[in-house]
Amino acid sequence: MIENLPGDSVLNQEAFLFGVATSAFQIEGAVGERRPCIWDAFCREPGKIRDGSNGDIACDHVARSEADLDLLAWLGVDAYRFSINWARFLDEQGRIDPRGLAFYDRLLDGLAERGIKPFVTLYHWELPQHLEARGGWLERDTAARFRDYAALAATRLGDRVEAWATLNEPWCSAWLGYGNGIHAPGRTGLGAYRKAGHHLLLAHGMALEALRSESKSVPVGIVLNDSPCLPASDQPEDADAARIAEAFHYRWFLEPVLAGRYPGLADELPEAQQPPIRPGDLACIGAPIDYLGLNYYTVERYRAGGPLGFEAEPPQGTTSDMGWAVDPDGLRHLLEELAERYELPPVYICENGIALRDECVDGVVDDPRRAAYLRDHLLALDEALRAGVDVRGYFHWSLLDNFEWAEGYTKRFGLVWVDYDTLERVPKGSAHALRQWLGARPGIRRGTP
Ligand code: IFM
């Protein structure tokens, strides 16, 4: 399935890491063994989650972690990206919860036994509910609490971590959680978006410092999502609209991290929508990172209009079950454009994948579209590498079908099917194809150290 990949591709070389990704709330379950987080509360609000579900059991990964680690080894991946649930790791007083520590210890040890490199994210959206009760990301103090959490995680787990990521997709936490409210904690408003966004970025900068001092030799980065924002026509006003949309959404997070400043759009915002910047904040946020994690799924098209000056056009061409346009060349475009515009550190594609209406028939899940999606995105990535963009690895989203946030369990992104009644795992056709390719990469010998 990945045969078309040229033999001399960097993707075939040992230094290029191939992995799969998951996140804590989406797979862990074991809700009774941790403190509540904002997603527990949000799921209990009627109408917020499409199928009325929650993360109480999810994929029951905490209880089934050994079997899931075996799946990773069976696939033959070099690396595994997962996240720590803050509300499992620490208690309300900010002290380590021994049960949480034991679970993440087990996971890291299990990965080491299997020779798989752990890429660990500290925040994939599970703010502990007791911090939400104190204002959540609208409070500057939450950034300081995150720094303390990062320092403890580094001290207790850092010896086995290959790379840390502070935050996953702060745009989603800020815009979807505080701007349009479709994610937890479900607040709305442009002022809240900017405020939460700034405190998240500050949390990243403060945690970066803490991680650097506690786990010295481990690279630290952040994972940002970005979709190229393209004009819906060749009219100059649509080109402007696309630029505003890009600055409003994705570059609002990328530019402070990579260049220590907000996009120029910030100067045009009314007072009530300004981020609450204090002296030193931008230097802290823009401190050099060891790598940039990028999550790529789709491209977006914009037309001039609406209260914000831009309106999204319906996606063109083939779409996923999320309704997102499938556009592999957008990945090449994004990487080349970012490399041209910013001084980029090494990049890892930390998420890329497709939701499909998979079905399990007689124990078999045939998903050729996922295998083709993966191949086409790897080919696009290969082009960007040939154009000189320094990408060091690729993580497919996701290892398992899982809780897709406001969509509940209605969307399946996994390489491995999960039967939510029995919690049985069934590797899909794409997982078999990927395993075959990973096993056949010329010159790569992996195994337990
Ligand atoms: O499932 C999510 C993940 O948690 C964050 N990035 C996008 C994925 C697909 O929507």
Major sheet characteristics: 8 strands, parallel, barrel
Strand content: 5-15%
Which stretches of 5+ consecutive residues score pLDDT under 50? none
Name the helix and strand elements from N-terminus to C-terminus, one letter apiece. Answer: EHHHEHHEHHEHHEEHHHEEEHEHEEEH
Task: Give the termini separation.
Answer: 29 Å
Side by side, the strands of the main sheet go 1-2-3-4-5-7-10-11
Envelope shape: globular
Small-molecule binders here are: 5-hydroxymethyl-3,4-dihydroxypiperidine
Description:
The structure is a single chain. Strand 12 and strand 13 (425-427) form a beta hairpin. The mean pLDDT is 96. Helix 7 packs parallel to helix 9 (190-214) and helix 14 packs parallel to helix 15 (429-440). Helices cover 38% and strands 14% of the residues. The chain is built from 15 helices and 13 strands. The protein has one domain (10-439): TIM Barrel. The protein is an alpha/beta fold. It has an 8-stranded parallel β-barrel with strand order 1-2-3-4-5-7-10-11, surrounded by 4 helices. It has a 3-stranded mixed sheet with strand order 6-8-9, with helices on one face. The chain has a two-stranded antiparallel ribbon with strand order 12-13. The protein binds 5-hydroxymethyl-3,4-dihydroxypiperidine.
